[in-house]
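dumping this here so i dont lose it
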């Protein structure tokens, strides 16, 4: 009996070792990014601007909701330093700059427009264009005005009409400038934040999602009417299945036909040899071990799901713990190059990817804390009154990758592919599909 157990154990060990053998990444010739590829950086209003007007998030911060660990201070004052950040992006060779317009800033009271806020956004868009970049504008990045919160937020169907009026105003203003429009940033994460902050009862989440779907669908038509030829999307947050299937069924599956490209935000994967994503549940994102090949599975999955549509990596980046190096020595540059490699690998397999945005150009307020830092430029938001933008190692790396239109053909990822990735169980047998 003992002998049988021993043989079984040896067989399992051998099979496991074989399965875990790294895939011969170098044997696959990878193309560079296609012509016209969008090399981007991302930022978002509430997280970066400072001086926040009344909004759902301003209230969570002021009320020190459970999810809030750090005070907001003045974020990284993008409101006054946008010209500097846009210039930093340009100096890396970035071609697309993603920002959000804050509905709470533009319309602080129902129907009352803040002209200074509009002039500020006009200038941001002007600077982006003057720098030769394409603006990617997110209409809603997790925030809505305080007066909308008072009316029940997105559980109130009337919010759809109010949001469409705001969208009408913004799109008219920037129509004809070649803007890439994002209606809602990560709708399912927006829902989760509202749940976590106590704004959604158990039976209200569905109503919020249905109203977001309705707003997106009508917003899509409206944007096309006002800005013909524009490209419109909503970016989804990639999660390990089965969470992904649930998320998809509540939003992206319902906006089929109302997307010009699929926006994909990829941060964390899960596999039998990497379950560290569990740390995300406690917002300890820097403890999650990066899984770069996960971006490849995500791109393949969504290309299969939306066969005719191009895909765009609207967000990807690496959290560090307050700017400290990772314990495993994996750097922001390694992370960036490895993910680009897997995007190029997806291209090699015929997936149509038209852009990649790094999240984010600078560190910013991570929805309750400054501890997770994602910036190409790091900023000590709580301790440096000058809010100096200091380059991380990844600035030079991104500049070189953009100049070369990707990582070189012979690049070997530093991190080996996952074993038994939840996103594709064929990897249990050591094979990439
Ligand atoms: C969000 C960003 C956030 C980033 C990193 C995405 O879910 O769109 O607002 O900062 O992930 O956590």
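and the seq i came up w/
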């Amino acid at each position: 009996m003992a002998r049988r157990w021993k043989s079984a154990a040896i067989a399992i060990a051998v099979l496991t070792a074989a399965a875990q053998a790294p895939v011969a990444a170098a044997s696959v010739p990878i193309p560079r990014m296609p012509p016209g590829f969008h090399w981007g950086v991302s930022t978002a209003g509430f997280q970066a601007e400072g001086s926040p007007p009344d909004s759902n998030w301003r209230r969570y911060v002021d009320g020190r909701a459970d999810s809030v660990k750090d005070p907001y201070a003045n974020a990284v004052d993008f409101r006054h330093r946008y010209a500097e950040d846009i210039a930093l992006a340009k100096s890396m060779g970035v071609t697309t700059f993603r920002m959000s317009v804050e509905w709470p800033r533009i319309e602080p009271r129902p129907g009352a427009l803040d002209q200074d806020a509009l002039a500020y956004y006009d200038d941001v868009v002007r600077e982006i264009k003057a720098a030769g970049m394409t603006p990617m504008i997110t209409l809603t990045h997790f925030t809505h005005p305080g007066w909308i919160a008072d009316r029940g937020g997105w559980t109130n169907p009337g919010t759809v009409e109010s949001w469409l009026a705001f969208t009408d105003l913004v799109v008219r203003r920037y129509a004809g400038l070649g803007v890439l429009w994002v209606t809602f940033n990560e709708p399912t994460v927006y829902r989760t934040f509202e749940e976590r902050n106590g704004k959604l009862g158990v039976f209200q989440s569905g109503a919020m999602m249905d109203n977001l779907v309705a707003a997106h669908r009508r917003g899509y038509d409206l944007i096309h009417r006002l800005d013909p030829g524009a490209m419109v999307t909503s970016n989804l947050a990639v999660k390990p299945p089965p969470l992904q299937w649930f998320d998809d069924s509540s939003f992206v599956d319902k906006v089929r036909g109302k997307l010009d490209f699929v926006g994909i935000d990829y941060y964390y994967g899960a596999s039998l040899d990497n379950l560290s994503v569990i740390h995300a549940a406690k917002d300890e994102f820097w403890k999650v071990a990066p899984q770069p090949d996960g971006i490849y599975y995500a791109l393949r999955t969504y290309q299969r799901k939306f066969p005719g549509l191009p895909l765009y990596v609207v967000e990807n980046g690496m959290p560090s713990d307050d700017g400290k190096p990772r314990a495993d020595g994996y750097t922001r540059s390694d992370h960036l190059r490895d993910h680009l490699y897997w995007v190029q690998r997806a291209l090699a397999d015929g997936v149509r990817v038209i852009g990649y945005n790094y999240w984010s150009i600078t560190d910013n307020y991570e929805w309750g804390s400054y501890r997770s830092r994602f910036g190409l430029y790091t900023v000590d938001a709580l301790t440096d009154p000058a809010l100096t933008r200091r380059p991380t190692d990844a600035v030079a790396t991104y500049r070189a990758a953009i100049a070369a239109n990707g990582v070189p053909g012979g690049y070997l990822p530093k991190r080996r592919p996952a074993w038994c990735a939840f996103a594709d169980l064929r990897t249990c047998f050591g094979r990439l599909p």
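The chain has one domain: 34-429.
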